[in-house]
């Protein structure tokens, strides 16, 4: 039995039932123990499973996470049972890369100012507009999403420097460095954008020293996970004008507390963790799930797309 | 003598004097008759010359316009004397295409709403975000600027339909139609963006019938000249929700009057004719002017870049 811990859109559900007429599907909005005990496959957004659930799910053979982050999963318990986990990494790449490009262009061409003038009926043309053309971006995490950001940036004639654990070549990156070499490339960066997951290695990876090394005009963007940088370190970088501006879609505490100083900093843009949102999200998740389910039922367990390494966390 | 009717940035002036040590340059902020009478070449932004000036400029052989539009020039008087005119078309393409992409992405990913939530310290994730990916854009005027917009849109997997007088193939356009075929492609368009110049043919080219033919979700953008569409026709299209939204950088009357209803329409974005602005504007103009001046002095008059056809107006 295939157990969904959420209730998908009717048209997507119908399509699934039609595509797999011999499967038993249970669609639930909560995690029920009776159903759980029978579940061979669990499909979840990755935020609702506990260690106790894993213990109850005696027949569980595969977990499909319809999101990218697995940091809220009982990963130790899952790994101990040797249950494979797949996610939908890659499906965020289109909306996220579009969002990142939007915020970059808005920064370079003074869009907040244009909107403010409009509110006041002011025809003022003294905006500080700069071209994105010819600038340099450091991309922390040049995987599926980071690569898509890089691909779009190359179209705008931006030099791309990727940064990850290994420093090995990655698509759409003109150059690659390892995490421990980050400081050496920051002085050249006009834009530093992170799409890194939350792992032991990425936690507080960005330090005050990194912000010190950046141009005072640089744009810092966090679109991965809030754990990348301590909130106070970010606030200090912005208030001391170590950098020009920041746009964050993720924060150490979410929702961002209503009294956080970040809301009102003039050089800070707060986005409420929406950059991966898209009307095509579930549609794309199902487009990954369906062929995976076929492979699974044919016994080709090794060939599933998007296995997650529970020890690495992505 | 080469007569500038404006005073360029010191570093650009110095570079010019160094590059052409045998030329006499006059840099003025106004048009003075004594200087004018001696001028062989006039360099102007194209908004300060009158018929009387042309009559006074007895030695005038070439006018270089450091802008794209020539609608404020005494074109009949210039044509009667057979004086060639060149402009700097193409140098707007980078900032304008970046601006257009910015506004498109802001529309698709609800950026105005994100900024409003931030002002109120509201962590709301119920934004209506759509992907640009897979949409269709009609580009009115697929020349240097329109082609650059098309090139960037192709990177976002957008289908591009160009529209101009001839309907002949143009770069980065998946399909081309003539002006008189515009209505036939509008029902397919998610975005309609114009970068057309102001000519007899483009004046009020967009009619109420065109807006009727568009999707009620379509985004209309005018980044060419305000004469393309009557203000009332645009207001009607927006208030009657014939289209989803509009972003205009140009208007029939500029500055846009403080009491224009356009300022406050919720589905309208007013940009104060700034999309071509760039800190690299004059730098790029000079990069066109210098080789042109060399060709001119070598007698290769026919080989100048960017001749303007005064009868066509661009």
Automatic annotation (TrEMBL), chains A, B:
InterPro entries in UniProt: D-isomer_DH_CS (IPR029753), D-isomer_DH_NAD-bd (IPR006140), NAD(P)-bd_dom_sf (IPR036291)
Keyword Oxidoreductase belongs to the record: yes
Domain D-isomer specific 2-hydroxyacid dehydrogenase NAD-binding: 101-275
UniProt name for this protein: 3-phosphoglycerate dehydrogenase
Keywords from the UniProt entry: NAD, Oxidoreductase
Lineage: superkingdom: Bacteria
Entries under Gene3D superfamilies matching the protein: NAD(P)-binding Rossmann-like Domain
Keyword 4Fe-4S: no
Molecular-function GO term, any one: oxidoreductase activity, acting on the CH-OH group of donors, NAD or NADP as acceptor
């Amino acid at each position: 039995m295939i157990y969904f811990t959420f209730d998908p859109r009717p048209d997507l559900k119908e399509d699934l039932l039609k595509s797999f007429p011999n499967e038993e599907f249970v669609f639930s909005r909560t995690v029920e123990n009776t159903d759980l005990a029978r579940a061979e496959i669990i499909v979840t957004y990755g935020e609702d499973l506990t260690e106790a659930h894993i213990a109850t799910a005696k027949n569980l053979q595969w977990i499909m996470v319809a999101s990218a982050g697995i940091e809220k999963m009982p990963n130790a318990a899952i790994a101990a049972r040797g249950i494979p986990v797949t996610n939908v990494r890659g499906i965020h790449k289109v909306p996220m890369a579009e969002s990142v490009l939007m915020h970059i262009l808005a920064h370079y061409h003074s869009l907040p100012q244009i909107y403010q003038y409009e509110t006041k009926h002011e025809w003022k043309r003294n905006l500080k507009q700069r071209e994105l053309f010819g600038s340099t971006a450091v991309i922390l995490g040049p995987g599926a999403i980071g690569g898509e950001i890089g691909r779009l940036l190359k179209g705008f004639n931006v030099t791309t420097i990727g940064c990850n654990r290994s420093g090995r070549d990655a698509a759409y990156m003109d150059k690659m460095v390892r995490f421990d070499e980050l400081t050496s490339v920051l002085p050249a960066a006009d834009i530093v954008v992170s799409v890194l997951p939350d792992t032991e290695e990425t936690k507080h990876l960005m330090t005050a020293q990194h912000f010190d090394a950046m141009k005072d005009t640089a744009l810092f963007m966090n679109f991965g996970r809030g754990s990348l940088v301590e909130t106070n370190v970010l606030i200090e970088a912005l208030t001391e004008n170590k950098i020009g501006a920041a746009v964050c879609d993720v924060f150490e505490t979410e929702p961002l507390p209503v009294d956080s100083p970040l809301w009102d900093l003039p050089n800070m843009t707060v986005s409420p963790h929406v950059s991966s949102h898209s009307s095509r999200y579930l549609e794309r998740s199902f487009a990954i799930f369906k062929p995976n389910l076929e492979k699974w039922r044919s016994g080709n367990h090794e060939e599933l797309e998007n296995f997650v390494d529970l020890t690495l966390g992505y």
